[in-house]
Amino acid sequence: MAETRKLYIKTYGCQMNVYDSERMAEALGGSGYVQTDRADDADMILLNTCHIREKAAEKVYSELGRLKGLKAAKPDLKIGVAGCVAQAEGEEILRRQPMVDLVVGPQAYHRLPDMAARLDAGQTALDTDFPEEDKFERLAERPKAARGPTAFLTVQEGCDKFCAFCVVPYTRGAEVSRPAARVLDEARDLVARGVREITLLGQNVNAYHGAGPEGDAWSLARLIRALGDIEGLARIRYTTSHPNDMTDDLIVAHGEVEQLMPYLHLPVQSGSDRVLKAMNRKHDAASYLRLIERIRAARPDILMSGDFIVGFPGETDADFEDTLSLVRAVGYGQCYSFKYSARPGTPAAERAEVAEEVKAERLARLQALLTEQQRAIQDAMVGRVVPVLFEKPGRLAGQMVGKSPYLHAVHATAEGLAPGDIRDVRIVESAPNSLGGVLAGQ
Ligand code: SAH
Ligand code: SF4
Ligand code: F3S
Predict the structure, then answer these.
(1) Are 253 and 225 in contact (CB under 8 A)?
(2) Which atom of ligand 3 is the closest one to the Cα of 15?
(3) How many other β-carbons are positioned within 10 Å of the β-carbon of residue 230?
(4) HEC sequence for 200-218
(5) How would you list the strands of the sheet with 235-239, edge to edge?
(6) What distance in Å separates the CA atoms of residue 315 and residue 165, rounded to the nearest whole number?
(7) Whose CA is closest to 301, among 200, 245, 384?
(8) 65-95 residues labelled b (16+ CB within 10 A) or e (exposed)
(9) What is the phi/psi pair of residue 441, to 5°?
(10) Which ligand 2 atom minimizes the distance to the CA of 166?
(11) Measured in angstroms, how far is the CA atom of residue 87 from the centroid of ligand 3?
């Protein structure tokens, strides 16, 4: 057994990076690393980066600059960059910041133990390949850490859609689905370790088409139904979906699979058909609205969530008004909205940009509307009784926080509540970002 060393991982970006950071910690466990939550205590610092918006690479370089002092004080400290910036920048990182020891792209994480050995031999290690071998299979061989009642599980990775603004197809690579049996094994293992809610992850999770046991491709709906048969798994969620992959069987599953929670993140990006076309989204506003009608017919109480980009190149005031109209037509319970940010290497980066003040003004107007909708839906929860999966202690003594089926954060104070408990809670108050409740019957 190698000597024990401390690993600090800082995770940026999406939920898949959270999942990946857990796998990286497990992969490095075999090289003697245990996780710490203090950077100044670490023998290795890994930045798991995101490239989606703004000057992502520049932010990583300034973060690396801040780590210089730690490295000077502890020359044996290893510094690594993982994630989507590592994939996009590659060798450039080692050139611009020579104190970096390790650069690893998302498809090479299973090779981390070999890379750690190279670092121990005083070398640097760079791997941004898209290897043939099965990353997930190799990562799954590693001993697992203890965990709380909720977990992410990557079932699909990469994207073939090439929206004109997006770096993901370049940083994560082509769309790949994991075989159903492997996903089910990983889910059973999580449940055996106390997990009660699993969120299936993929950049295009509803495009899932993993090999089934008979060699036929399983849809996401079929996978969800099989997960629903796992005893002890109380809740299933999935994210992120593309409107064009929202198949009939998945919509039907929302009405039939009890464990599938009534929350759906279905980004539309814009309400203008002209902009959607320029974005290469391959759906229009009307088809999106019809889709939501069908989803609501299957599951009337579903809470809709989405993503929006304002100020995409060529977006006019009229286009933006179309986005506001679409938002009014849908009624979202939760949304993410962003100013368009040109990403190097994407088709939209070649186009003339909308002025910064215009973007800022549109974002403020959109966010005001989204916040209003979110608040109204949240306030309407007051008086209702909903099952809450409690996850961790809250800020006040005796308080626990968890999630409603609609993914609202809910806090309640009661004796004997433990992480992993699912209890009926009567919602009594609605604050900006959470709900307060009391156990039903108390
Ligand atoms: N695969 C998902 C999410 C991808 S990234 C999907 O297809 O919906 C998450 C969100 O970031 C996107 O939905 C989009 O709203 C936003 N985003 C992506 N690229 C962006 C860019 N260049 N500028 C601003 N926002 C962007
Ligand atoms: Fe990016 Fe579009 Fe793929 Fe989503 S569907 S990851 S926005 S290219
Ligand atoms: Fe960011 Fe990569 Fe996720 S760019 S959003 S970390 S897929």
Answers:
(1) yes
(2) 3
(3) 17
(4) EECCCHHHCCCECCCCCEC
(5) 150-154, 197-201, 235-239
(6) 13
(7) 384
(8) eebeebbeeeeebbbbbbbbbbbbbbeebbe
(9) 85, 5
(10) 1
(11) 11
**pLDDT confidence of 351, banded at 50, 70, 90?**
very high
Euclidean distance between CA atoms 332 and 375, whole angstroms: 10
3-state secondary structure of 17: helix
Tokens 């989803």 correspond to 295
Structural domains of the chain sorted by starting position, each given as residue range(s) with its CATH number in brackets: 5-127 (3.40.50.12160), 145-261 (3.30.750.210), 264-380 (3.30.750.200), 385-439 (2.40.50.140)
Closest CA to 374 of 409, 348, 347: 409
| Residue pair 407/264 in contact by the 8 Å Cβ criterion | no
52 in contact with ligand 1, CB cutoff 6 A: yes
Instruction: Give pLDDT tens digits for 44-84.
Output: 999 999 999 988 888 899 999 999 999 999 999 999 999 99
**Phi, psi (rounded to 5 degrees) for 367:** -65, -35
- If you search the block for the tokens 């608040």, which residue do you land on? 375
Q: Is 317:265 a contact under the CB 8 Å cutoff?
A: no
Question: How far apart (Å, rounded) are the C-alpha atoms in residues 245 and 405?
Answer: 23
Q: Which amino acid is at 112?
A: L
Instruction: Tell me the C-alpha distance between 198 and 152, whole Å.
Output: 6
Q: Dmax of the chain from CA atoms?
A: 65
Rounded to the nearest angstrom, the distance between the alpha carbon of 60 and the centre of ligand 1 is: 19
DSSP track, 259-324: TB-SEEE---B-S-HHHHHHTT----HHHHHHHHHHHHHH-TTPEEEEEEEES-TT--HHHHHHHH
Q: What does the pLDDT look like over 262-310, one tens digit per residue?
A: 999 999 999 999 999 999 999 999 999 999 999 999 999 999 999 999 9
Q: What is the DSSP letter of 347?
A: G
Lookup: tokens for 216 = 């036929």
**Where does 106-229 show beta strands of DSSP type E?**
125-127, 150-154, 156-157, 176-177, 197-201
Residue with token string 């969620």: 237
CA distances (Å), origin 148, targets 121, 198, 237, 238, 392: 36, 11, 16, 18, 8
Instruction: Out of 203, 279, 341, give the residue to mutate to test ligand 2, the one with the largest number of ligand atoms within 8 Å of its CB.
Output: 203
- How many Å apart are CA 73 and CA 53, to the nearest integer? 33
Per-residue pLDDT of 234-244, as tens digits, reads 999 999 999 99
Query: pTM for this one?
Result: 0.96
The per-residue pLDDT for 100 is 97
